[in-house]
Structure formats: C-alpha cells, structure tokens
Amino acid sequence: MRTTLKAGITIGISIGILVACIGIGSVSIPIPDMLTIIKAKISMTTIPKNISPSMVSILWDIRMPRALTAFIVGALLSVSGVIMQSLLQNPLASSYTLGVSSGAALGVALVVVCDIVIPVVGMFLLPAAGFVFGLGTVLLVIAFAKRLDASLKNQTIILLGMVFSLFVNAVLTLVSAMNAKHLQRLSLWQMGSFAGRRWMHVGILLGVAIPGIVAVLWFHRELDLMSFGEEQSQAVGVDTRKTKLRLLMWASLLTGAAVCFTGIIGFVDLTMPHVTRKVFGARHGLVIPMSALLGGSFLALADLLSRTLLAPREIPVGAVTALVGAPFFLYLYFLGRKGKPSCR
Amino acid sequence: MQIITCKELHAAYDAAQVGNEKTEVLKGVSFGLEEGRSVCVLGSNGCGKTTLLRALVGMVPASGEVTIFGKNMNDMNRREIAKHVAVMTQLSEVYFSYRVSETVMMGRYVYQEGLFGRPGKKDYDVVEQCMDAVGLLPLRNRALHTLSGGELQRVFLARTLAQQTPILILDEPTNHLDLRVQAELADYLKAWSKEPGHTLVGVFHDISLALHLADDVLLMKRGRIHTFCSREEILSSGALEEAYEFDVLRYLRERGKELESTI
Q1: Nearest residue on chain A to B81, judged by CA atoms?
Q2: Which residues of B touch A (CB under 8 A)?
Q3: Do A343 and B143 count as a contact with CB atoms less than 8 A apart?
Q4: Displacement of CA B9 from its chain's centroid (Å)
Q5: CA within 13 Å, CB half, A102
Q6: What is the least distance, in Å, from the CA of B236 to any CA of chain A?
Q7: Which of A98, A160, A341, B206 is the most exposed place for a label (fewest CB within 10 A)?
Q8: Which residues are registered as beta bridge partners of B26?
Q9: Angle between the A100-113 and A154-177 helix axes, to the nearest 10 degrees?
Q10: Residue B115 has pLDDT above 70, yes or no
Q11: Interface size between A and B, measured as CB pairs under 8 A
Q12: What is the DSSP string of A257-270?
C-alpha cells in the first residue's frame, strides 16, 4: 500500500475514534447534532433550540476536553517512546526506563503527604510537582552518566536510569507506607485517569505537544542515524553527544507533561512506536507524526472503553491500555513473524 | 600536500571499561598522509589500528594534535569532518528495519539541513551510483533485517561512499564478504583511490589485499608506529616479520605454493 494512503487511513481512524469518544456514553449524541454544536461553539453563534443544553454541556464541557486530553497525552507518550527507543537503540526503552514516571510519582506523593498548599499555583500544584520531579530525575540520571562516562554511552544511561528508577520507587513506597491515610489518593493518581479534564488542560497540553513534536521532527534525520548507534552516526556527521542530550530533554518534557495531568499510564510509549514502525517502516520523518496519531487514537479509545465497559463505573485507563494493548501487541508481533518480511 | 597529519597522538580506554587500569592503546603516534597515496594500516590484533583510525576523526578521546586539510580537528564540528572524511566502522547491530536505499541516503546527511531539507536530485543520483558500485541495486527495496552479513556490509559501504568525501577511512571493509564480492570491492576501491584527489586509508587483515590496494603501508606494533614506508619497501625490509613476530612472507608463499600444487 502506498504510504500516503496509509497515512490517510491513519488520519481517518484518528478522527473516527475522536468522534466515537465524543458521541458514545450514557447519553449518546448523534453526529449531526455534534457538528451543529461544535460549529456553533466555534463561531460563537447561538445553538438551535431543538438541542438540549445538557447535551451541549456534556459534549463541549465534558467529553470533548476529555477525549482531546487523552488523545494528546497518547501522542506525547508515543513520540517520547519513539525517541527513547531510537536514541538508546533499545526496542524496550521508554521514558519510564529513565525514571520520569517514578520521579513524578514521588513528587506528587511528597506534596500529598506533606499537605503542601501554595495558593497561587492552586490545582496545578500536583501536576507541577510531578513534572518538576520527573524532569529532575532524568537530569540527575544524565548528570551522573556524564560524570561516569563523558561520551554518554547508552548502557550507562539505561543502567543509571534503572538504578534511579528503582531507588525513587523505593522512597515512594516508604513514603506511602508511612502515611496510610493518603494511600488511596496516591494510588489513584498512579493508576491514571482522564476524568474531569477541562479545556484548560487541553490548552496546556497542546502548548507542549505542538512545539515539542515539531522540535523532535526537526531531529528526524539524526534519529534515523542514531538508531544505528553512536559510532555510525558520528561517522556520518552527527554530533551525538549534543543531539542525545537535547532529545533526552525533549522526551522527558513530553512524558512529564503527559504524566503530570493524568497520572501514570504505561504501555502506550512502549507499544505504539512498534506498531507505527510495522505499518510505516522505520524512517522517523514519518514515524514521529504517525506514532503521535496512532498513540493518540489508542489512548482515546482506551479511555472510551474505560468509561463505557463497566458504566457507570470507571476502570482505570492504565489498566485498559495494558489489558487491551498486551494481547493486541502480541497478535501484531506474531502475525508479523509468520507472514512475509514484517517491514513493508 | 599533506591532507591528514597527527602529532603525538595518545589514546587510552577508560579505566572503568578495562578492569581498573588505564590501558594506553596509542602511545604517541605521529605521521602525515599525502594526498592521493592510499595507506594501509597493518599490525597484529590489539596493536591499535582501529583506535588510530577513530582517533584521526575524533571518534575516540585522544590527546595530541590532528589536522585535516591543514585545519585543527578540534576546531571542526562533526559535520565539517564528515564532509572531508567518510569512515566505515566495523559492523554494528541493526535494531530498526530501514530499507537499503533509505540507509544509503543517510550518507547524504551532511548535505541536507532543516526540517524539510528533502533529498534533491543530486542526492538520489549519488545514492543510485553508490548502490550500483557495490552491486546493491537489486536489493534496493529490501529491509535491512532480511539481508545477510555480507549484504549489510555492502549497504554500510555504499552509505560511506555516498558521503562523497576526498578521504575514505575503512575498517576491515571486506569482513563477512564472500570472495567474489571481495574481489569486486577491491577493484572498485582501487579504481576509486586512483581518481585524482582521492585518498584511501584502511585496515585490512588480508595482507595480500592490503598490498594490492595500498601505495604505502603503516605498520603498527603495540600502540606505536613500527614502519611507515612504501608497499615495495615493506616487503624487502623485514619489518612485517618484526611487527607480527612471525614470518609473514614465508607463510604467504607457502600457502600460495600449496594452493598452486592443489590446482
């Protein structure tokens, strides 16, 4: 199949899933009404009387921001997964390997346990703490790696990342265990959820996602080369040390932004890059935008399932991504093995 | 004109990597390479051949001074170096499956800039030409993970050629290749090195191939230069025997005779 056709289908699937996320739920909204409401809201005209105000509110204030948040978070996680896997030349690497999520979780736990309240920051305190601690952990990992090995070799980074990740997790367990009354809130945050997300969250996430993904796209040739290893990319003219440092920072920023509003959601960043490479080949110029779309669609769909499967109860979205994702991933993997060469 | 010079080059592997001792691999190497004279680096295992090639383009940390076309290497960025010198290192593992033509196109990296710096007609022409030179045209659309070791080696060689540099540094380019491809490649490299302005620097384990390709031989022993002289001189000087601590020429002669008598 031609690449443009495949890309077209991917875009179609993304739109379809977003529409489903907005339309399906305890109140289902027909597509024509959906279009009328969105058009009226965007052009700031009045909504026709035959559409009930509660439907408008469900669509515009609840479902759309929730679906878009899930989509953007999925895109961010997926792109950061692409970067990590190529940069560290390890198909099993993700930002989680470098301790972003455990760092973020520790930050949130400390804020909750210490009952810290900062009036100006308000409701952004938890995400901000998660973000700062997540990024801080990666910076520490890189700083230590640099001291140990000036050329920043992959195995040094992965090893230190794992060590830090485990250490921070241990501290987190200690903090949680000693503060039983906050245990529930902490574990809920760690499960991840998109409930109650507003347009403001969408705005902030878009503010990170657009410049972030464009910046990463800027490095698509370097990523291609670096997935062959440092030596090979140096030989062709890439300043590997500088490029690696910049891309690691971007990947942590993308993950940090994703994690801080929604809690920890695994699996997207590990699997979606693989799925994308299987469909579109390995070139990052294509893999980066397409993995953003596929990752976004996957997480939006997972969120739809999380709120509809056992409605009115919600399943944590992190559990859905793993429950749906793991068998799907295995299926894809084994299908690829049995058939013809799995790449294109 | 000297195109690459190095003065008092020292390189050592990190203490953390090799036990707790710092192992000095290059112990003060100085020489200059003349434009158009192909050089083959010879020496026994572990004498520092590969490290020397890498140090010449700043791919391993080394102290001492290296100049490329008269310019100090420390003042050049990687892009600049890659426009003058193309290096083909020993084969690395392939994790993600690019197609053959995509991989060869990566050799044009230094000529493309910016977000949408798409390859131009010249890039495609060069890639086509380089794939043709190493017999890759029939494999152009194959994914890398479906190729054999020898085919993969040719892909990386084509990518190195696609950099279109005046200097080509090759680290055992004929590894993994069957005899026919070795012979074809040797012919191609010989022709390449005879074009004006081209200089080939290579490490070869096959001494007869090395002598076929090179004008000069740089013989190394334990991190130092043992002899740097022309191909003809090296055979009569007895230096090979000293560096390898083994009667190389007698061995080669006997193998040749044996083969002849069998045929």
Answers
A1: A237
A2: 14, 16, 57, 59, 61, 77-79, 81-83, 86-89, 92-99, 102, 106-107, 109-110, 112, 114-115, 117, 142-143, 145-146, 156, 159-160, 163
A3: yes
A4: 18
A5: 22
A6: 36
A7: A341
A8: B11
A9: 20
A10: no
A11: 93
A12: HHHHHH----SHHH
The conformation of residue A47, written as its DSSP 8-state character, comes to: P
Residue carrying the six token digits 């290096």: B87
Q: What angle do CA B261, B177, B227 make, to 5 degrees?
A: 75
Percentage of chain B with pLDDT > 90?
A: 28
DSSP assignment of A176-219? HHT-GGGHHHHHHHHH---TT--HHHHHHHHHHHHHHHHHHHHT
Selected residue of A148, A223, A234 to mutate for chain B interface (largest B Cβ count, 10 A): A234
Burial readout A274-292 (b: 16 or more C-beta within 10 A, e: otherwise)? bbbbbbbbbbbbbbbbbbb
Beta bridge partners of B168: B86, B200
Kindly provide the ipTM of the predicted complex, given to two decimals. 0.85
Q: Quick one: pLDDT at residue A342?
A: 37
Alpha carbons A44 and A35: distance in angstroms, whole number: 14
Q: Which pLDDT tens digit goes with each residue over A249-292?
A: 888 888 888 887 787 787 888 889 988 998 898 899 999 999 99
Is residue B132 pLDDT above 80, yes or no? yes
Interchain proximity B98–A282, CB inside 8 Å: yes
Residue A211 in contact with partner chain B when CB distance is under 8 A? no
Task: Report the greatest alpha carbon distance in chain B.
Answer: 62
Of A67, A68, A35, residue with least CA distance to A51: A35
A342 at the B interface (CB within 8 A)? yes
| DSSP run (H or E) holding A146 | helix A125-148
pLDDT in tens, A280-335: 988 999 999 999 999 999 999 999 998 888 878 888 888 888 887 788 777 766 76
Contact A10, A272 (CB under 8 A): no
Tokens linked to A286: 């294509």
Q: Please name every residue paired with B196 in a beta bridge, in sequence order, or none if there are none.
A: none
Domain boundaries, chain B: 2-262
Specify the residue for token string 């099993």: A92
Phi and psi at residue A319, to the nearest 5°:
-70, -40
B14 — pLDDT class (breaks 50, 70, 90): low
Point out which residues pair with B67 in neighbouring strands.
B5, B72
DSSP state letters, chain B: -EEEEEEEEEEEE-TTTSTTSPEEEEEEEEEEEETT--EEEE-STTSSHHHHHHHHTTSS-EEEEEEETTEEGGGS-HHHHHHHEEEE-S-----S--BHHHHHHGGGGGG--STT----HHHHHHHHHHHHHTT-GGGTTSBGGGS-HHHHHHHHHHHHHTT--SEEEEESTTTT--HHHHHHHHHHHHHHHHSTT-EEEEE-S-HHHHHHH-SEEEEEETTEEEEEEEHHHHHHHSHHHHHHTS-HHHHHHHHHHHHHHH-
Span A184-240, pLDDT tens digits: 777 777 777 787 788 888 888 888 899 999 999 999 999 999 988 888 889 999 998
Measured between CA atoms, the residue of chain A closest to residue B57 is A235
Q: What's the fold here for domain B2-262?
A: Rossmann fold (3.40.50)
B13, B63, B78, B102: best mutation site toward chain A, by most A Cβ within 10 Å?
B78
